[in-house]
Amino acid sequence: MQARKVPHEIKNPMSKTIDSKAFWLLFACLTLIGMGNTMLFAVLPPIARTIGMPDWTVSAIFSLSALLWVITSPIWGRISDKTGRKPIIVTGLSAYAASTIMFTLVAFFGLYFDWEWLWVVLALALARCIFGAVGSATSPAVQAYVADATSPENRTKEIAALTSAFS
Q1: What is the DSSP letter of 12?
Q2: Given its phi and psi angles, is residue 109 left (phi above 0), alpha (psi -120 to 50 degrees) or beta?
Q3: Domain ranges of the chain
Q4: FRET partner for 141 with CA separation of 20 to 30 A, picked from 64, 75, 112, 115?
Q5: How far lies 12's CA from each of 5, 20, 154, in Å?
Q6: For the chain, the helix, strand and coil percentages under 3-state DSSP, each to the nearest 5
Q7: How far from the centroid of its chain's Cα atoms is residue 32's Cα?
Q8: How does pLDDT run across 79-130, given as a tens digit for each residue?
């Protein structure tokens, strides 16, 4: 009689941890999102001043994005419960990429093609709304993926290590 094979990512079924390749891939995704967000905090104010945008518009753009993030993250978590974690992670990462590309293009055109500041503000706000409303899908789906792949004993440690990438 042959012993049952245990998948390589689970050493002890009673204290399972997430596969290290999956963990590092998810960690890299959250790190990139966190780095991109931090970069925007640093570059938008000088870009806005150069374009002639009022200071309050920078705060409004970031606040709108944050508000949408807070509202939609729990919704994305519930959607990932129904549709699966991976499609929602990919959706969130795709929205993050699209919003970052859009933000970059709008900033470029605003700087080099003399767009009126109001149009730049509206386009940048739209890019950040995409990030806040759809890019927010990544974080809850990643956390749920880790929760699904770990035992209750290891869950807190794994999620804490993973979410440290975002901060």
Answers
A1: S
A2: alpha
A3: 54-163
A4: 64
A5: 12, 15, 12
A6: 80, 0, 20
A7: 8
A8: 999 999 999 999 999 999 999 999 999 999 999 998 999 999 999 999 999 9
